[in-house]
UniProtKB/TrEMBL annotation:
<dbReference type="Pfam" id="PF00643">
    <property type="entry name" value="zf-B_box"/>
</dbReference>
<feature type="transmembrane region" description="Helical">
    <location>
        <begin position="330"/>
        <end position="349"/>
    </location>
</feature>
<dbReference type="InterPro" id="IPR000315">
    <property type="entry name" value="Znf_B-box"/>
</dbReference>
<dbReference type="InterPro" id="IPR013083">
    <property type="entry name" value="Znf_RING/FYVE/PHD"/>
</dbReference>
<dbReference type="InterPro" id="IPR027370">
    <property type="entry name" value="Znf-RING_euk"/>
</dbReference>
<keyword id="KW-0863">Zinc-finger</keyword>
<dbReference type="InterPro" id="IPR001841">
    <property type="entry name" value="Znf_RING"/>
</dbReference>
<feature type="domain" description="RING-type">
    <location>
        <begin position="10"/>
        <end position="60"/>
    </location>
</feature>
<dbReference type="InterPro" id="IPR017907">
    <property type="entry name" value="Znf_RING_CS"/>
</dbReference>
<keyword id="KW-0479">Metal-binding</keyword>
<protein>
    <submittedName>
        <fullName>Tripartite motif-containing protein 59</fullName>
    </submittedName>
</protein>
<keyword id="KW-1133">Transmembrane helix</keyword>
<dbReference type="Pfam" id="PF13445">
    <property type="entry name" value="zf-RING_UBOX"/>
</dbReference>
<keyword id="KW-0472">Membrane</keyword>
<keyword id="KW-0812">Transmembrane</keyword>
<keyword id="KW-0862">Zinc</keyword>
<feature type="domain" description="B box-type">
    <location>
        <begin position="92"/>
        <end position="134"/>
    </location>
</feature>
């Protein structure tokens, strides 16, 4: 701190003078500080009627003051004027106490190792703490930065630097692994998406083929019936117009119309035969795809879809006599019974067999054997669908 500021500081409280009073020995102190010294002397009440002795805190000389006490001491007006002017000016290079307004930090607290002001020592939280002046504290702590610098540049600095490099390396390695995993995920789901898209296209193509088969089954019959309907409408129009013809024209045309109507009525009409699509896509997706592991989807076979009539027209069967018909019925009953028993066995044991085989194949079998096994399962489901279809036809026929 500047020497000029030291002249404005009370040697008792180490704060800027407040109401400075001058003792006869020419030393100046704050009025409140002198009152505290007077009370601490213990002679205040004894010598109250007489003059009061006071020992100067600076030079230790005994001074007698009037009975009115410290108030009788003269005010150091010159010093107070200087203090007021000093406090009105800005002092950017002076550090003041954050707790006590405009009080400079001019004392060093040895207990808390920090700068404090005079109020901190007298009325603040540093009251009674050991102190030292700034110059002495500075000389004692002057060599501390070199010691601290030596501590900061020892092996600890090397260890910290090495750990930082190691952590950065580990971080980069971990981020590289995450990036690799990210690329694996993207590639895996891209390939999986491609496989699913390919399977979807194959299923849609199979359904398109089934629709073509349905068109081949129904379109010719529909077109033929439309032709018959158009011809019938034409005959209806001609028949209606005959009523307006003259007798000559009427007789000339009536026979031709009659023959055409007879020929039209004699033309055989096709029998509507509902068709059945097998296997159904919903059944394939539910029974086969749902049980397929995600890594084996590319090996799932797309079934060949077909259509068949739900019932057979009686005209396709030859006419038998009564004995042959009875024998044929018995044979049909036996066939239906056998097929029913076989179907029940397949339906009952199929799920358990496939579940067991799935567990075994996931552990022991190779991809080639697994592919053969899945092909066998597909054929098994196809056989089951065909048996169901045959059973349905036999039931309807019998």
């Amino acid at each position: 701190m500047h020497n000029f500021e030291d002249e404005l500081t009370c040697p008792i409280c180490y704060s800027i003078f407040e109401d400075p009073r001058v003792l006869p020995c020419s030393h100046t102190f704050c009025r409140s500080c002198l009152e505290n010294v007077l009370q601490a002397s213990g002679n205040f009440y004894i010598w109250r009627p007489l003059r009061i002795p006071l020992k100067c805190p600076n030079c230790r000389s005994v001074i007698e003051i009037a009975p009115t006490g410290i108030e009788s001491l003269p005010v150091n007006f010159a010093l107070r004027a200087i203090i007021e002017k000093y406090q009105q000016e800005d002092h950017p290079d002076i550090v003041t106490c954050p707790e006590h307004y405009s009080q400079p930090l001019n004392v060093y607290c040895l207990l808390d190792k920090k700068l404090v002001c005079g109020h901190c020592l007298t009325i603040g939280q540093h009251h009674g703490h050991p102190i030292d002046d700034l110059q002495s504290a500075y000389l004692k702590e002057k060599d501390t930065p070199q010691k601290l610098l030596a501590q900061l540049t020892d092996a600890h600095w090397t260890d910290v630097t090495h750990l930082i490099d190691k952590l950065e390396h580990e971080k980069a390695h971990s981020e590289e692994m995450v990036q690799c995993d990210k690329e694996v995920v993207l590639l895996y789901f891209k390939e999986l998406g491609d496989v699913l898209e390919q399977k979807k296209e194959h299923l849609l193509a199979a359904l398109c083929d089934v629709r073509n088969l349905i068109n081949q089954e129904y379109t010719p019959q529909i077109e033929r019936l439309k032709e018959i309907r158009e011809e019938q409408l034409e005959l209806m129009t001609e028949t209606t117009s005959l009523q307006e013809e003259s007798p000559l024209k009427f007789l000339e045309k009536i026979d031709d119309v009659r023959q055409r109507v007879q020929m039209l009525k004699q033309r055989p009409l096709p029998e509507v035969q509902p068709v059945e699509i097998y296997p159904r896509v919903s059944q394939v997706l539910k029974e086969e795809w749902c049980r397929t592991e995600i890594g084996q989807i590319n090996k799932v076979l797309i079934p060949e879809m077909k259509i068949s009539s739900k019932r057979m027209p009686p005209s396709c069967w030859p006419v038998k006599d009564e004995k042959e018909i009875e024998l044929f019925k018995i044979l049909n009953f036996v066939i239906v019974t056998l097929i029913s028993v076989l179907l029940m066995l397949i339906l009952f044991f199929n799920q358990h067999i496939i579940t067991f085989l799935n567990e075994i194949t996931s552990i022991c079998l190779s991809d080639i054997v697994l592919s053969v096994y899945q092909s066998f399962c597909n054929n098994l489901y196809d056989l089951k669908d065909k048996l169901c279809h045959i059973l349905h036809l036999l039931k309807e026929f019998t």
